[in-house]
Structures
1.
Amino acid sequence: METRVAARRSLPPLVAQLPFLLLILLTVSSCAAAATSDLVIGEDYVRPPARRHRKALLSLFPWRKKKASSSSSDPQQVHISLAGEKHVRVTWITDDNSVPSVVDYGIKAGTYTSTSQGESTSYSYLLYSSGKIHHVVLGPLEDNTVYYYRCGGQGPEFQFKTPPSQFPLSLAVVGDLGQTSWTTSTLNHIKQCEHDMLLLPGDLSYADYMQHLWDSFGKLVEPLASTRPWMVTEGNHEKEHIPFFESGFQSYNARWKMPYEESGSASNLYYSFEVAGAHIIMLGSYTDYDENSDQYAWLKADLAKIDRKRTPWLIVLLHAPWYNSNWAHQGEGDSMMTAMEPLLYAAHVDMIIAGHVHAYERAERVYNGRLDPCGAVHITIGDGGNREGLARRYRNPKPAWSVFREASFGHGELKILNSTHAHWTWHRNDDEEPVRTDDVWINSLAGTGCIQDSSRELRKILMAP
Ligand SMILES: *[C@@H]1O[C@H](CO)[C@@H](O)[C@H](O)[C@H]1NC(C)=O
Ligand SMILES: [Fe+2]
């Protein structure tokens, strides 16, 4: 069994997948459609020169991938995520199938006082077979504490810090990350900023059917993702659906398991979690969201559980933006917005953060297309640095709700100071330096008249069958 897996994995990935590439080209996939709609938007749209995946060429020569120094039982692509209150999930991959899914950990370097046992999975996709993907939940853990840990009972020591249980809370935010040299600058800038957790509103690796690129992405983000929880939701590039061959989301679901069970959801494609005084909902733009869908029913149930006294901040992430004045992907979020915006408005969501459009845009509080002091602040931050480049062309005149828009790569930081005040900044990658470019204080809706006004409306929506 193991030998077969090893043999299949050593096929040169491009050559092995050539017959399927043609099929993919013929398939109406959202990623092809998205790229095309970007390209035809107008004559004055200038896409910057594309940057390749950092390691794409190397992967054509699989014999060069072997590093003599690392053993097949060593942990690769280590990342962590929250897994319910006071728990963290550690995920890593080994080539060696005999490595146990255990994590030893403790609060002193080299001294492991606890051990957790977890589960493992793997997947096949076309001719590719993944390594052994381990998921181990640790806890209960202390808040705001550094833990040292070791994966699979051997190998190097890693460390992470758990988030605080109270404000202040610092969140790094980046979308549409990819794995180019633009991505590397963004990750370097995020590393320089103190943050408790990273939020990613979709489009992670841009592997786009080439499964070994999920592995190189995992390696690229490990230095950050093994030290702070990464909470992600899916974008169109996670789908990798091929009619009659692949059902979609195999790689994403296997590698980026999020706390959906812990939040009462039946799908890894949408879930919620709480951290300090924030309730954060990760929605799925690429699964059903209409009023009869499982996601909609789950969202209603999740919103009904929120206690704004305990979690005064309510933040939602999703991939395809609802308020976007860039020509790229114009209107793609509209049907989801029609289905879900009234529900989120009635629940007094403070912020809705999206990706997909490769640029940055911030909107005032808005609802139903109009400025509304009880609506959500919308942010589009699909500018992590993927290989497709920037979306530079905007609709004019600028809509009344759009406050700031710029087509540059960068990342955002949300520092929630207390139950009412948060400071949002967007940092552009300017000649490889992070430059704070947008800067605004955001007040939560908790404690404002908004909540009084529409609580009856929310109850009506939540109680509706
Ligand atoms: C929250 O922080 C802001 C900014 O520092 C401050 O002005 C405000 O008084 C604080 N509010 C509470 C409730 O502590
Ligand atoms: Fe996207």
2.
Amino acid sequence: MPDDLPPNSPKGQHPNTGAHFATRMSHGGRAGTRVHGFVNPPVHRGSTVLYPSCAERGSINARSLEQVMTYGTAGGPTHFALENMIAEIEGGSRALIVGTGLAACTLPLMAYLNAGDHSLVPDSVYGPTRRISDGMLKRMGVETTYYDPQIDAAGLQALMRPNTKVVYAESPGSHTFEMQDIPALADVAHAQGAKLIMDNTWGIHHFQPFTKGVDVSVQALTKYVGGHSDVLLGSITVNTPEDWAIIAGAAREVGHYASPDDCWLALRGLRTLAVRLKAQEAAGLAVARWLDGRPEVLRVMHPAMGSHPQHALWKRDFTGACSLFGVVFDPRYTVRQIDAFVDGLSLFGIGASWGGYESLALPTTNYITRTATRLDVLEGPTVRFHIGLEDTADLVADLEAGLDALPR
Ligand SMILES: *Cc1c(COP(=O)(O)O)cnc(C)c1O
């Protein structure tokens, strides 16, 4: 490692020695005493990297899979500090930072799938991931079958084809929050040599993908890692040198890159991630339970609540929850009435994304696509809630006033 690379703790030791999550988020990826004594690594911006001789420039090519600085697109110290932190959060060996969460979802699909291949994607997948499967991947000769996110091993086995190279998973599913039996899916995929790629954005560190059979784990760092609704980034984490070569090679072919300024913001977000997540997990559950007790609400879709149909899977595989969940309102209300309720809230913003410090409410009825399963989720109008860092009592009062104003 070149000397100007920030070490991962003030004393220059990698902190992954059994310390708790909050401690590791505080001590990882720091500059220590190397940068004039400043705690944090600086933002290293750059395209050209200079070498003292042609021979040294030439010798670097053989080390392209290492964290060496060859050119801006290959990353610099700010990228590498964040990559190391994300790899550690997910329990993988290497992580790659890309410009958006969506880029993190799409790059592994492009990397592992060839013309004539087949992939299996859950019907509850993040919408834009469905878009590339039906768009660019299809155009390039890759066929996608959407499957019921609640499928069991036998069901997935029945959908596997000789050319199935990727099983994609996302647990819980976008907008509808179905939990998936990841270890069971992994067994089926691996029996045939297929890769299991998982979108772990909801899980963050509460789901450890590589102990559950996942080969490639992607996250939108835009969400809780950024944490302040001011940065877009994605991560792709793997746990073998072979997978790293495939992912890093594909990123280089396509030209993926993330701004070091954004990596710096994500590193800053990581310092408070543990405390934010803990507070937001508790607040999210409190608001979800309160909503569950209201007569206007048919059901709440929160995997950490006992009423969730796959709560047992969450309990088995996750160590916690984030503060994103869905609500199905009573079918006696129209989408227009629920839209008016959301419009009337004063503390909940209306908008995409989540994981920031501010609460959001997003009507989702028209965002849910199903091609393999029935739209059972739509007994009534649906709203996705993200609970931020406001006082829970204020959020509940805001919701209460809105619900009380709905027709009886
Ligand atoms: C937001 C999100 C993404 C994409 O992240 P962007 O940074 O907005 O591109 C991917 N997967 C899931 C589950 C998401 O919620």
